[in-house]
Design brief:
two-stranded parallel sheet, six-stranded antiparallel β-sheet, 13 helices, alpha+beta
């Protein structure tokens, strides 16, 4: 892995970024909206360790117990292991069943890094206080994890199917997170086309940490017929696209209110991003269009239903440029025999800017 870049006078922890407002947008006055929250990090050993290791930002929820912070820490530590290259059960080595996806063991790690980069860029393009969104983007960049990835292909360079499950932890000391499941399938038969694109999400609070396996994705449960998996009650269908037996292409999204339930995890509150900006942000977190899959028509069709970006919003490319020049992609180099050079936790590497490194 390339040597870490030394910090300069303009670098620093996310919490120390300038608070100067961008385009006259005020910083979030969370104290007025949530008087029970605190600017003081938890004092217990588990809560304090979580704040330090994962660069969690204020506000903090004092009602979260030490036992809950311990469960949160255990869960994220397990996902750190799974998202570490060369670890015994790393998703990079063992969970890829699609020959196209697993042809290069570096692909899954690079895809996670790419998703995280796109997520940070979208947040930097929001119409928010500059200091606040910079801190958020830097913490969120290292808060996305792969839970599982599988798929198949037809040998033509693009996947026939992809099923990717990811988890994004909220950047504040509130203990919440969002699970994403992205499902893509496209297969051309003699007299028909099988095609579907789904992106679902489920908002979790800290009480779910320690329930089941750390890698369990909460978008589905086994309540379907004969114990089959089905979308869990409360899960949000962000994208639902398919071609039916009559060759009719259906494309639908969801409501702003449901998307804002996820926005509240990402930003601490809702009503900040336009529906188009929020939709784009969730596509990044869900790994949509990261696997060379043929989903552009579907995603563009749903996106077109939403109004353009609101005043003050951008794609974030200009705003995130300085950070992109500093941060490494979090993925170590590959050796000639297909192994990684070192054990590297991709999300922890991507938190370097938030740590002020």
């Amino acid at each position: 892995m390339a040597p870490k870049r030394k910090s300069d006078a303009n670098d620093g922890p996310a919490a120390k970024v300038s608070k100067k407002a961008a385009a006259g947008v005020p910083a979030w006055d969370w104290k007025a909206q949530h008087p029970s929250w605190s600017a003081t990090p938890p004092a217990g050993p588990h809560g304090k360790a979580c704040v330090e290791k994962y660069c969690l930002l204020a506000p903090y929820d004092p009602s979260i117990t030490e036992a809950q912070w311990e469960a949160y820490a255990t869960e994220r530590a397990r996902l750190d292991e799974i998202n570490t290259t060369n670890s015994e059960d790393s998703y990079v080595r063992y969970n890829l069943t699609c020959s196209d996806l697993s042809a290069n063991n570096n692909l899954a790690g690079s895809t996670l890094s790419s998703c995280s980069s796109d997520l940070a860029r979208e947040v930097m393009g929001a119409a928010m206080d500059l200091g606040e969104k910079t801190a958020l983007s830097r913490t969120l960049r290292g808060s996305l994890y792969m839970l599982a990835i599988s798929g198949t292909d037809d040998g033509d360079g693009s996947p026939r199917s992809v099923d990717a499950k990811l988890r994004l932890y909220g950047p504040h000391g509130l203990g919440n997170s969002v699970d994403f499941e992205y499902s893509f399938h496209h297969r051309t038969r003699m007299d028909s086309v099988e095609h579907r694109v789904y992106l679902s999400a489920f908002v979790r609070d800290i009480s779910l940490c320690g329930v089941g396996k750390a890698t369990d994705c909460w978008t589905t449960d086994s309540s379907g017929k004969n114990g089959r998996e089905k979308r869990r009650d409360g899960a949000i269908a962000i994208v639902s696209c398919w071609i039916d037996s009559r060759d009719k292409h259906s494309m639908s999204g969801t409501t702003l209110a449901k998307l804002q339930d996820i926005e509240a995890v990402l930003l601490g509150r809702s009503g900040v991003m336009s529906m188009r900006k929020l939709f784009n942000t969730l596509l990044a977190a869900g790994s949509v269009r990261q696997w060379d899959e043929d989903a552009d028509e579907d995603i563009n069709g749903v996106q077109a239903k939403y109004k353009p970006l609101q005043a003050g919003e951008t794609d974030g490319r200009k705003e995130v440029k300085a950070d992109e020049a500093k941060v490494e992609d979090g993925v170590p180099e590959m050796e000639s025999e297909g192994e990684f050079e070192a054990h590297e936790c991709v999300p922890q590497n991507l938190l370097a800017l938030a740590r002020g490194e």
